[in-house]
Amino acid sequence: MSLPSIHRVVTGHDAEGRAIVSSDGPLPTVVGLQAIPGTVFHEVWATHGTPAPVDNGADPTLGPLSLPPPRSGTRIRFVDIPPDTADFLAHGAARMQGAFAQIGDAAASTVKADSPHPLMHRTESIDYGVVIDGEMTLVLDEGEVLLRPGSVVVQRGTNHAWANRSGRVCRMLFVLVDGAYEPTIATALAARA
Hints:
Mean pLDDT: 94
Helix content: 10-25%
Strand content: 35-45%
Number of domains: 1
Number of helices: 2
CATH class: Mainly Beta
Number of strands: 11
CATH superfamily: Jelly Rolls
Shape: globular
CATH topology: Jelly Rolls
């Protein structure tokens, strides 16, 4: 089953300050990951500071993919995640550096020989992940949680992976907010590295 394309409406202001539609249509940046066929990033928007400038600026989704949000900013995207395959589970870890490099953050991959899933990764951000369609399993260093449509994960910079064991594509919506580890967590993470 193919999931529908994303329709995006961006508003703005005219010279008199009236609300207008700046753009209305498909997302300009939709990218499939070469290292993980079937994984598709649908970039919706990003902000590059806090407070975010409310302006009629250029579309921040144009250009190369970036996994984390901009420094002091946010990022919103949909991600279509295909079912895990036996080949991916057996050999996926070797391809992960390339996959994370394609999305602008090769350092995010934390996969090791004893990792519970080949997509283990971490970003220094608060991420809200919402299952829109399908099922997903959140995999952590310790424990897993099955997620269905309407499930929301508040991901607080932890090591994790998204395992699709459902047999069909899952679409998730992610909102990423730049963050900074609390010092005792940063120290604990450095000791584990």
